[in-house]
């Protein structure tokens, strides 16, 4: 009886349970990070056979890893396919770091590099073979993300993998039927939204997800509204600013007029069904999103097309960026030299880039990536459109000065919790920005960081 | 000689033997309950200090009850507590009433196929919580659910995952999962009700209803109190269902319940606050359970 009762409490998730996990995970924290934090540690190759653990959520990554493993019998990589970063992997990774059980390498998006560096989770690979010469191989803005804009004086903390230049995915057949062209401005996008909704009950131009705060950030990025500024060792929170309020007010209007589906969570089976059923007909998303639609809305093959992101100014050419990842070597890896070598190979080798693009739809951060034959090809799913031309152009138009804060997990959380209230009608996105700004200041202070007003 | 020797050894054996028998419980209890709780408490009293700029060294310093003040002053603290309290006020009575009704039915003289139904009612408890929540999530989802589809085709526009309904939807999952479990505790207690009590009542002219409500229910009162306490604890520690629902409902925030909030804080690197919240939650749960027991004991006395 007693055993069974205890079981019942535990199954509903107990405070004891949380406490226990916390304790188990943080038991090995503390002093351990101190050693690894000493920057620019030497990066000597190991002798003998090495096995590297690697976490990633890129579809088809296993094939690239297999290729490496077949070419490097002495450095075998063991891949673990994980859920997307903010869906759980970052939490697991933080916990694993606390417990000193982290893998050697992990996929980490640009927006989370600072926070992982802050918690001492990243290894400085500046001294590792190949890294000092790697900078010119990558798009400028991506390299300035991994060296924190210090041009190498502040270490190198990851290898850029892909970028997420944003564009508009839309159901060309639906737009054609309604006599609509791909909207070039946000004004036209709103007009299209009204027409699409009037055409069929329950049909929406897009969904407004609550769990994709980084999507919303991409929209802010397009309007040059970075959320953080770093001035030396001080941080400034700029979440609530005229540029971001403009974006928020626009989407608030679409939500108020019920022109966007607010009950569909991003990347959910329900959203995929709505795509298949033609109930949601556009998605403003990154280059990597092409495989998301392709793999989850199979019945709509050939009906989608890609156009540049709608603009705030007529004739403008701004693009946002959503996600994009790096391959980071984590604190505690015993083989940083081998890990860095693999990371560099994975993100510069022509064959590897080809696999990652074909299987995962990644848009490479490496300069040579743009020349991949696959990125010149028409894509069947998108009505034989050469969609990567659109993304290549978008990539040129991404504002390269965007700075991420070191507490993005919190900032995203505030945004997404606020969005739940906004889509539920209890608040507005403008209020959400305001609240997110003050909460973000608070969470920077909680990490005992300097914040200016 | 023998008489003096015996008393000398027996007390020592008497003091050691219980611990030997208790060891299988005590060792894991200390390792996996007391030590972590102690560590969480220690952690809740400390915070991180940073020297040498943004990415400089970190130091753990004593901060007293600062984290507690921080957590309590967060708006989500009261919100989430009120939410689970309301949840408990509705869900616990419904679930326990249902469990009691089922237990009494199974125990009644007219019940057939007792073994079968006992098993059927208990089956949901055997399904892992995450699986159950996922399954229900699909049944609630307007895009995927045949039930919601059917209702909508009958022009009943229901949004089971909307801000107004999602708490009830979660309550339904919890009720579905735990009714059978509570029923089993009550049913087991009913088995221990002496048959002569019911017989005597029947001789005195009591009907089935009267026997159930006036004889059986008062006798199994301890079992009812027990299930009440467990449900109360479970409610305040609600976690799995809202966490799973976050993936499909746009209405569940990262601080929906106190436990979820502690989890979110921990995963935002705010371990000290998460620890403080966990300790507060543990204390609150303990205090509530204690009050509940006192309250029911007094009424019993």
TrEMBL record, chain A:
<dbReference type="InterPro" id="IPR006059">
    <property type="entry name" value="SBP"/>
</dbReference>
<protein>
    <submittedName>
        <fullName>Multiple sugar transport system substrate-binding protein</fullName>
    </submittedName>
</protein>
<dbReference type="Pfam" id="PF01547">
    <property type="entry name" value="SBP_bac_1"/>
</dbReference>
<keyword id="KW-0762">Sugar transport</keyword>
<keyword id="KW-0813">Transport</keyword>
<dbReference type="InterPro" id="IPR050490">
    <property type="entry name" value="Bact_solute-bd_prot1"/>
</dbReference>
From TrEMBL, chain B:
<dbReference type="InterPro" id="IPR000515">
    <property type="entry name" value="MetI-like"/>
</dbReference>
<dbReference type="InterPro" id="IPR051393">
    <property type="entry name" value="ABC_transporter_permease"/>
</dbReference>
<comment type="similarity">
    <text>Belongs to the binding-protein-dependent transport system permease family.</text>
</comment>
<keyword id="KW-0812">Transmembrane</keyword>
<feature type="transmembrane region" description="Helical">
    <location>
        <begin position="274"/>
        <end position="293"/>
    </location>
</feature>
<feature type="transmembrane region" description="Helical">
    <location>
        <begin position="21"/>
        <end position="42"/>
    </location>
</feature>
<keyword id="KW-0762">Sugar transport</keyword>
<feature type="transmembrane region" description="Helical">
    <location>
        <begin position="219"/>
        <end position="239"/>
    </location>
</feature>
<protein>
    <submittedName>
        <fullName>Multiple sugar transport system permease protein</fullName>
    </submittedName>
</protein>
<keyword id="KW-1003">Cell membrane</keyword>
<feature type="transmembrane region" description="Helical">
    <location>
        <begin position="160"/>
        <end position="181"/>
    </location>
</feature>
<dbReference type="InterPro" id="IPR035906">
    <property type="entry name" value="MetI-like_sf"/>
</dbReference>
<feature type="transmembrane region" description="Helical">
    <location>
        <begin position="119"/>
        <end position="140"/>
    </location>
</feature>
<keyword id="KW-0813">Transport</keyword>
<keyword id="KW-1133">Transmembrane helix</keyword>
<dbReference type="Pfam" id="PF00528">
    <property type="entry name" value="BPD_transp_1"/>
</dbReference>
<feature type="domain" description="ABC transmembrane type-1">
    <location>
        <begin position="81"/>
        <end position="292"/>
    </location>
</feature>
<feature type="transmembrane region" description="Helical">
    <location>
        <begin position="84"/>
        <end position="107"/>
    </location>
</feature>
<dbReference type="GO" id="GO:0005886">
    <property type="term" value="C:plasma membrane"/>
</dbReference>
<keyword id="KW-0472">Membrane</keyword>
<dbReference type="GO" id="GO:0055085">
    <property type="term" value="P:transmembrane transport"/>
</dbReference>
